[in-house]
Amino acid sequence: MAALQAIPGVEVAAVADAVRERAQAFATAHGIARAFGDGAELLSCGVDAVTICTPHAAHEGAVLAAARHGVHVLCEKPVALDVAQAHRMIAAADAAGIRFGVIFQRRFWPAAARIRAALDDGRLGAPICGGVLARLNRDADYYAEPWRGSRDAEGGGVLITQVIHHIDLLQWYMGPARRVTGHCATLAHPGIDVEDTAGALIEFGSGAVATVQAGTTFRPGLGIQVWVADARGRTAGVAELPEGVGFTDVWTVTGEEEFTGRYRGADLPLAAIHDHLAPFHARQIEDFVAAVREDRDPAVTGRDAVRSLEIVEAVYASARTGATVLLPAPG
Ligand SMILES: NC(=O)c1ccc[n+]([C@@H]2O[C@H](COP(=O)([O-])OP(=O)(O)OC[C@H]3O[C@@H](n4cnc5c(N)ncnc54)[C@H](O)[C@@H]3O)[C@@H](O)[C@H]2O)c1
């Protein structure tokens, strides 16, 4: 919030929460003039843009309401519970002529942006293979929040809520996915009806192949690695260890060899994970504000955000049916 309030010319005018007292407490803590118990009231108070930080199930309604009011909208990940909702949100934003961005702040880590830059300037060729290895720790307290661990409210588990960030990075590097085969299971968290363990094989339109292994069952968590390699064997990766702290991992581009493994063997509290990520949230919010001012697309649009959701949804469909899922060609 401090970073948002520090952007020149930006005034955080109001906050809303379905629990009005929470909105009021937040407003008081951050010097925000108005607090509402309903998003519709906030949208009617004359704001230019809103950022949506509600649980996933409320994203669609909030973005459609912002579009009806002609208010630009930056929405938390995952963009929606499913791809159909995301397409309705994109269509509403297009029809209203508003800017619609989705938070994937890990793209703003220097270590993650560095891989995209190496692909853009040819130091890395088109990836032929890649992967995500996500070994996370989420305990019973985490899943005690009623909307977490519920398929209806969360749409899924570790893939849609945690690892969608890293699937977003993977497809940012590797291009559109074409076929997905997946398996999901709930193995160590009794009482949740979403996956705490998942594995997937992704084939990309380029012919490249990647694997995803993800779980929230590790004690302690062992962080996350995302990596890609080109046809000449050059490999680049970004790792997050402890969770929330991103750094350059394997990097075998000639002249830039580097390895900076920093295993600490301990989990950070969720609040500390978020503190580490906050500066990169701030950079994405700054980009969104600039996009509105410059009348251009934000760094991550609703259309960009739907790609990782398509992959996650395809893993779920494959896990249900046992079949490989063919994704639509990018429109
Ligand atoms: N980008 C990231 O790294 C990151 C990190 C954490 C959470 N998130 C995302 O942020 C969203 C919220 O997650 P959280 O962990 O902060 O949830 P939370 O449960 O801690 O907080 C959600 C808040 O939204 C309020 N709320 C619920 N429905 C509402 C509605 N219809 N209108 C207004 N307020 C409503 C709740 O009262 C609550 O105060 C999720 O979509 C999550 O994926 C993203």
TrEMBL record:
* SUPFAM superfamilies from the UniProt entry: Glyceraldehyde-3-phosphate dehydrogenase-like, C-terminal domain (SSF55347), NAD(P)-binding Rossmann-fold domains (SSF51735)
Report any Pfam family annotated for this entry: GFO_IDH_MocA_C3
- Signal peptide residues are none
Where does this protein come from, organism-wise? Paractinoplanes rishiriensis
According to the entry, every stretch annotated as the Gfo/Idh/MocA-like oxidoreductase N-terminal domain falls at 4-102
Q: What is this protein called?
A: Oxidoreductase
The GO terms this record gives for MF are: nucleotide binding
GFO/IDH/MocA-like oxidoreductase domain boundaries: 114-227
